[in-house]
Amino acid sequence: MVRRWSFSTCSLGVGQGDPLPPLLFCIAEEVLSEEIMACYAGEIVHMFYCRRVSLPTHILYANDVLIFCPDTKQNIRCLMNFFNDYSEVSGQIINNSKSHFYSGAMTTSRSQMIAGMLEFSAGTIPLSYLGCPIFKGKPKGIYFQSIVDRIKVKFATWKGTLLSIMGRVQLAKSIIHGMLVYSFHIYMWPRHLLHHLDSWIKNFIWSGDIGTRKVCTVSWAGLLRKRFIKNGTPLQHYFQSSVWGGIKEHMGTITSNLIWIVGTGANIKLWTDNWLGNRLMDLLYILQSLHKHLTSSVADVIVGGGWHLPSEVLAAPGVANRIHVIVLSMVNYLRDKHLIFFETD
User: Fold this and answer.
1) What are φ and ψ of residue 161, in 5° steps?
2) Which of 185, 263, 308, 322 could pair with 336 in a Cys bridge, judged by C-beta atoms 3.0 to 4.6 Å apart?
3) What is the pLDDT of residues 104-159, one digit of tens each?
4) Which of 152, 64, 73 is nearest to 113 (CA)?
5) Helix (H) or strand (E) holding 251
6) Which residues, including other chains, have CB under 8 Å from residue 130's CB and lie 6 or more apart?
7) Which residues, in sequence order, are bridge partners of residue 230?
8) How many of the other CB atoms lie within 10 Å of CB of 44?
């Protein structure tokens, strides 16, 4: 039995978003890729950059075709013959006005000869492709200047906008970091350029302008307690800090004048923080070796808006009188405050 096959003619093209065009494109690209590989298996000589490093023969992305080969006349003739045959079969024609060739060290006469054979114009290196700079040699700051300029334009458009500090942080995370992360996956940027960008981001977050530097303000009491004081006593080891040299001689005065104003009591350590005028461990004469085991907070002894301390603690001299002076808040969201006070005559 013999069957007759016939081909139907297409009167209309496919619409946008139709799943058929990508499949047809992949089929055509697969044929093109296999034929290029066949050329390299035959007449075209492979490119060698250095030992134990293999370079791709070609790269296909959308409508772009990148081919890597030595600049010999034989290779150029073979490639041109192949693309002429492919154009006759597929109907896809090379756009000479949008095509370029790139080379390393080459004389002007040889570059003109290759341009005449390919009918392409000579491109210059470095170049940018798909938003990523392509260059030869070690990464330099000039190669990434275009990305830096785009970031600077972004900052300039955001200057003067009524954004909160958290809004500026979100912009830096989502937009600026997104512009950099793609390039970071490929290249190791020069250090001085990273410092430059980092200063822009910090200035923008704190002041809203990359050219205006604003000193970050913090609570001195919070800084001292979190970095230089542990369990109510100053730390003794070395600190790499610009302020430690000026305050280490006065740490005794500072620690003796640090006091907590009780709110919820969640951030105040019951035994080692000063919230009674003196630390509770000093009033009870608790040994220094036991301080690291005292982890309770003041909130643990506040129940139902009242004090619930062990009778042994209240029996210590001066403890009960000091505790009854402290007025507890009737709301559960009042924050604890850490203050530095000095008595003057």
Assistant:
1) -75, 150
2) 263
3) 778 888 888 888 888 888 888 888 888 788 888 888 888 888 889 989 988 888 87
4) 73
5) helix 251-256
6) 61
7) 233
8) 23
